Amino acid sequence: MGEQPEYGGRPGHSERGVDMSPVSEAQKRATMKYMAKAYDRIELKVPKGKKEVIQDCASAIGESLNGFVNTAIDERMERMSPDFGGETATQEGSA
User: Fold this and answer.
1) pLDDT tens digit string along 17-27?
2) Residue 32 CA: distances (Å) to CA of 41, 48, 64, 83, 87
3) Model pTM?
4) Which residues contact 67 (CB under 8 A, 6 or more apart)?
């Protein structure tokens, strides 16, 4: 009675159904290599407490913080000028 069954009866799975087994060092290196090749990084500074507010807004609509910020940037760029193109131009420019 004290133990709860594992999600779906499968070892290594959480309530969300995600495999919780540790990631190998080789997989970590491969992921980092891909991230460096596929993405640029931007450091964003906001006043203390604002990150939590932004995170709450993103969570309320089912988005990650990164996705929320990227969408906000794309929408602002589209309003400035169609030449900037937002997400579509970003995807085309990286091809």
Assistant:
1) 666 688 899 99
2) 12, 29, 19, 32, 23
3) 0.59
4) 58
Q: Is residue 76 part of a domain?
A: yes
The residue range of the domain holding 50 is 42-95
pLDDT for res 86: 53
Q: Name 19's bridge partners.
A: 13
Beta strands in the chain (DSSP E): none
| Whether the Cβ atoms of residue 12 and residue 20 lie closer than 8 Å to each other | yes
* Structure confidence by residue, pLDDT tens digits, 43-66: 999 999 999 999 999 999 999 999
Inside any domain, residue 28: no
From the list 44, 42, 38, 41, the residue with the least C-alpha distance to 91 is 38
Token reading at 86: 């937002």
